[in-house]
């Protein structure tokens, strides 16, 4: 089948008025940037929809890149023919023929006469197109209620659109349409999935990663950079802040309360992320916490750890099972990277029995006893290195304009 266009459906049903306008403009800009490698293709905009006119470009290759555009709900490859009865019947025939149906398939035609001057009303068109198809293709069996195959025909003045496939898109809210958040990105399975979920809700995400040279290797840091690159595929580019954490972490090992080390580390991570959020204009912190998964993710632990920041803590995975998280990680292409064996700074000093029920007063007392802790946090922020990643490159933060043109 030769397809002429792709029909793109935008937005959640509940979107109205001004919000819908903003939503649609943001998706349009994103779609434009991802189809740049297909120069012949052009875009037309309509309420709730976009059309990509293929002009000979490969529909499957374009659908592949569209799968990473949030705010896009589904895509249908469309054949276009003149708005004349014979042409519509002939194109519909060709459409069904190329599907090469083997088994009995329930079927209906849904015609919509958008152009009122077309001589046959919608109901009549259903019969005029449906009858010859039913007599030619023995596998087709009419079902009005819940057909496996619905051939849709939209009759417009400029031409008639014929399609039946509805391919699910990435869904969610468009890129960056709900503000900015800092993502605590480790090398594990969970936090990249949390980042994806946040981006899917329209958050612009900046990554924050804590590393502990020489206890963690360069490989561990590279692995995190690769994970962030995968995430950048959903936004075009992503910023990552690499925070030196060795000194802070080491100071906690000297307190003599080993069961609190993870709690103390997590609180310091949140404090640093909060400082970076202020600097970057982000309004929330996203983590990969999932309730009950490990000692630091029990409800009492989350409670004591969460108090280290006043920013909203978003935990997209909090109620999910591990296997559900792994499934998403596999789908979005982070799983294989995440299971590479390089150590994370948190696994290094993990005590034999980290507390599942830390006491806030004790934790605060320990922190107060470390006089130079605030200074160390400040210094870590100052020594933080920031780079911008795209799916295929690393760019110093002060050279952002170098990629601007490619993506936005
Ligand atoms: P993940 O798979 O995301 O590492 P996890 O189940 O291993 O999660 P933890 O190691 O307890 O859980 O970490 C909980 C959360 O704390 C992570 O999801 C991440 O958001 C954050 N975090 C942990 N270590 C780091 C790090 N080195 N840098 C940045 N964030 C981190
Ligand atoms: Mg981890």
UniProtKB/TrEMBL annotation:
Any Gene Ontology CC annotation: cytosol
Enzyme Commission number(s) from the entry: 2.8.1.4
Keywords of this entry: ATP-binding, Cytoplasm, Nucleotide-binding, RNA-binding, Thiamine biosynthesis, Transferase, tRNA-binding
Compartments, record wording: Cytoplasm
Alphabetical list of Pfam families matching this protein: ThiI (PF02568), ThiI_fer (PF22025), THUMP (PF02926)
Biological processes, Gene Ontology terms: thiamine biosynthetic process; thiamine diphosphate biosynthetic process; thiazole biosynthetic process; tRNA 4-thiouridine biosynthesis
Residue numbers binding ATP: 184-185, 209-210, 266, 288, 297
GO terms of molecular function: ATP binding; CCA tRNA nucleotidyltransferase activity; tRNA binding; tRNA-uracil-4 sulfurtransferase activity
Record domain THUMP: where: 60-166
Reactions accelerated catalytically: [ThiI sulfur-carrier protein]-S-sulfanyl-L-cysteine + a uridine in tRNA + 2 reduced [2Fe-2S]-[ferredoxin] + ATP + H(+) = [ThiI sulfur-carrier protein]-L-cysteine + a 4-thiouridine in tRNA + 2 oxidized [2Fe-2S]-[ferredoxin] + AMP + diphosphate; [ThiS sulfur-carrier protein]-C-terminal Gly-Gly-AMP + S-sulfanyl-L-cysteinyl-[cysteine desulfurase] + AH2 = [ThiS sulfur-carrier protein]-C-terminal-Gly-aminoethanethioate + L-cysteinyl-[cysteine desulfurase] + A + AMP + 2 H(+)
PROSITE patterns listed in its UniProt record: THUMP
Domain of life: Bacteria
Pathway it works in: Cofactor biosynthesis; thiamine diphosphate biosynthesis
Entry similarity comment: Belongs to the ThiI family.
Record function comment: Catalyzes the ATP-dependent transfer of a sulfur to tRNA to produce 4-thiouridine in position 8 of tRNAs, which functions as a near-UV photosensor. Also catalyzes the transfer of sulfur to the sulfur carrier protein ThiS, forming ThiS-thiocarboxylate. This is a step in the synthesis of thiazole, in the thiamine biosynthesis pathway. The sulfur is donated as persulfide by IscS.
Protein name: Probable tRNA sulfurtransferase
Organism: Paenibacillus albilobatus
């Amino acid at each position: 089948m030769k397809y002429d266009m792709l029909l793109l459906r935008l937005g959640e049903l509940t979107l109205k008025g001004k919000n819908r306008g903003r939503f649609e403009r943001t998706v349009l800009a994103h779609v434009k940037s991802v189809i740049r490698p297909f120069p012949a293709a052009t875009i037309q905009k309509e309420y709730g929809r976009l059309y990509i006119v293929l002009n000979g470009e490969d529909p499957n290759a374009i659908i592949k890149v569209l799968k990473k555009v949030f705010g896009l709900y589904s895509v249908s490859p469309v054949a276009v023919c003149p708005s004349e009865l014979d042409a519509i019947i002939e194109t519909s025939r060709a459409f069904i023929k190329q599907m090469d149906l083997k088994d009995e398939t329930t079927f209906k035609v849904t015609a919509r006469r958008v152009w009122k001057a077309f001589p046959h009303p919608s109901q009549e068109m259903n019969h005029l197109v449906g009858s010859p198809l039913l007599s030619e293709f023995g596998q087709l069996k009419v079902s009005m209620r819940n057909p496996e195959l619905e051939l849709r025909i939209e009759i417009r003045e400029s031409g008639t659109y014929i399609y039946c496939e509805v391919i699910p898109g990435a869904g969610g809210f468009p890129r960056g349409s709900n503000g900015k958040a800092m993502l605590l990105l480790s090398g594990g399975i969970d936090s990249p999935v949390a980042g994806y979920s946040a981006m899917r809700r329209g958050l612009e995400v900046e990554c924050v990663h804590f590393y502990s040279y020489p206890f963690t290797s360069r490989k561990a840091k590279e692995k995190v950079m690769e994970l962030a690159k995968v995430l950048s595929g959903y936004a075009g580019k992503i910023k990552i802040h690499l925070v030196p954490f060795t000194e802070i972490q080491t100071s906690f090992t000297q307190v003599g309360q080993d069961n609190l080390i993870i709690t103390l580390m997590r609180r310091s991570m949140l404090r640093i992320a909060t400082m970076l959020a202020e600097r970057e204009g982000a309004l929330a912190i996203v983590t990969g916490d999932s309730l009950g998964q490990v000692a630091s993710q029990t409800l009492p632990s989350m409670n004591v750890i969460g108090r280290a920041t006043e920013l909203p803590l978003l935990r997209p995975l909090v109620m999910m099972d591990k296997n559900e998280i792994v499934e998403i990680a596999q789908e979005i292409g982070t799983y294989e990277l995440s299971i590479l064996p390089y150590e994370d700074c948190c696994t290094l000093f993990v005590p034999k029995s980290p507390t599942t029920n830390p006491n806030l007063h004790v934790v605060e007392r320990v922190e107060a006893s470390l006089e130079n802790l605030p200074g160390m946090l400040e210094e870590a922020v100052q020594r933080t290195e920031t780079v911008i990643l795209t799916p295929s490159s690393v760019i110093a933060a002060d050279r952002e304009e170098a990629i601007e043109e490619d993506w936005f």
